[in-house]
UniProtKB/TrEMBL annotation:
The keyword Transferase applies. Residues 45-334 form the Aminotransferase class V domain. Substrate binds at R352. Pfam families: Aminotran_5 (PF00266). Gene3D superfamilies: Aspartate Aminotransferase, domain 1 (3.90.1150.10), Type I PLP-dependent aspartate aminotransferase-like (Major domain) (3.40.640.10). The modification N6-(pyridoxal phosphate)lysine is found at K209. GO terms for biological process: glycine biosynthetic process, by transamination of glyoxylate. This is Aspartate aminotransferase-like enzyme. Keywords: Aminotransferase, Pyridoxal phosphate, Transferase. GO terms for molecular function: alanine-glyoxylate transaminase activity; L-serine-pyruvate transaminase activity. PROSITE patterns: AA_TRANSFER_CLASS_5.
Length: 413
């Protein structure tokens, strides 16, 4: 065989594969990138040295604001949100660690699965019926065992349930001597989360959701208490790349662990900078107003939301697919005709529209709602498209008028 025998014929450049016009990404992630973030992602610099040190210092300082923590243990990881989940899990949980995992859906079950794989003795509290966990039921479970770690998700992207009583649950877990690990991949910077104030011991996030950065570079923060536990461990975590004490060498000691994903970290820097510039106060309000406007508009069209208001996540909206309509056909029509992409779901007959980062902009909402309603109708649904559009218009113009006043008010508190 010659060297060239495996040189493949028929490979085309990317622009032959990608659509002429990029799709508007309105699903459950990845989300559209601000121009600054995309530009930063195209740069390569040395992963060590003075320039990188300054970038890392700023990333950590901005991350502390976004996580709402003064902890010195902010770390990054080259990997998806799941790698940050695994990093939190494998550093805090080992063979025989008793763990209570609150499972609302697919992603919180992934945390329980990871805890089991590293040898934890995991008890699962399955929260059925697409609703949020209550402090009362978690307190009951905590009282029934001696757990060292509790894992929970803030926003369960898979079924669009939000654990709205996270703060109370974290307080109860801490009172039982449990460290609290929170997956905030889809929610961070879209809704309040106060790591120090709520006494959370590990907060996990990814790039491509709330932060509107690229997928593949993620952040997490450990509390001092969590860090003590990590340092007191007599064995080492099984995953060398995810070892927090080794990662600390790069993130806090200016030395080498592995070659950091420099372009992705530059992108994350810009994404965090845009959050700081907007302020969390204004960003939370923007997300809430956009999501609530879209929810009201979808209901005004005559469609049903999947989760009841008391458990509903704002960062990703789940919509029931009407009888006789194919969810896949709706998505295909939306991306083919309108160039807007949304998500299907994991085992539920719902469609999901994201409201994370750049997705929560009025112009994206109008385009998405129109594409969604029009595609639903083409696929056989009976609905009031103009009624929905009018409701969106009404909500957004109201909230834009009052938003400036509310931002000023909230900032003064
Ligand atoms: C998307 C998501 C994850 C997984 O993130 P990846 O980057 O796909 O690994 C975990 N948890 C939640 C809540 C998510 O929304």
């Amino acid at each position: 065989m010659t060297v060239e025998a495996l040189n493949p014929p028929g490979i085309v450049p990317l622009d032959h594969i990608l659509p002429d016009e990029p799709l508007l990404m309105m699903g459950a992630g990845p989300v559209p990138l601000p121009q600054r973030v995309a530009a930063a992602n195209s740069i390569v610099i040395n992963h060590l040295g003075e320039t990188m040190n300054r970038v890392i210092e700023q990333v950590k300082t901005m991350a502390r604001y976004v996580f709402q923590t003064r902890s010195g243990h902010v770390l990054g990881v080259a990997g998806p949100g799941s790698a940050a989940m695994e990093m939190a899990v494998c550093n805090l949980i080992g063979r025989g660690t008793p763990v209570l995992s609150v499972v609302n859906g697919y992603f919180s079950r992934r945390l329980a699965e990871m805890a089991t794989r590293v040898g934890g003795e995991v008890s699962v509290v399955a929260i059925d019926g697409n609703r949020c966990a209550t402090p009362e039921e978690i307190a009951r479970h905590l009282a029934g065992g001696r757990y060292e770690v509790l894992t929970i998700v803030q926003g369960e992207t898979s079924n669009t349930v939000c654990n709205k009583r996270l703060q109370e649950i974290a307080r109860i877990a801490r009172a039982h001597g449990c460290l609290v690990v929170v997956d905030a991949v889809c929610t961070l910077s879209t809704m309040p989360l106060d790591m120090d104030g709520w006494q959370i011991d590990a907060v996990i996030t990814g790039g491509q959701k709330g932060l509107s950065s690229i997928p593949g570079v993620s952040l997490l923060a450990f509390s001092d208490l969590a860090w003590e536990r990590i340092c007191a461990r007599s064995d080492v975590p099984a995953h060398w790349c995810l070892d927090a004490r080794l990662a600390d060498q790069f993130w806090n000691q200016k030395s080498y662990h592995y070659t950091a994903p420099v372009s992705g970290i530059l992108a994350l820097h810009e994404a965090l900078r845009l959050v700081c510039e907007e302020t969390l106060t204004a960003r939370f309000l923007r997300h809430r107003h956009c999501s609530e406007a879209l929810q009201a508009a979808i209901e005004a069209m005559g469609l049903d939301l999947f989760v009841s208001a008391d458990s509903r996540l704002n960062s990703v909206i789940g919509i029931r697919v009407p009888e006789g309509v194919s969810a896949d056909a709706v998505r295909t029509h939306m991306s083919g005709v309108h160039r807007v992409e949304i998500s299907g779901a994991f085992g539920h007959n719902i469609l999901r529209i994201g409201q994370m980062g750049e997705q929560s902009r009025a112009h994206n909402l109008f385009r998405t709602l129109h594409a969604f309603g029009s595609s639903m109708r083409s696929c056989g649904a009976v609905l009031d498209l103009p009624g929905g559009m009018a409701e969106l218009e009404r909500h957004l113009s109201e909230s834009t008028r009052s938003r400036a006043a509310r931002v000023a008010e909230a900032a003064a508190l």
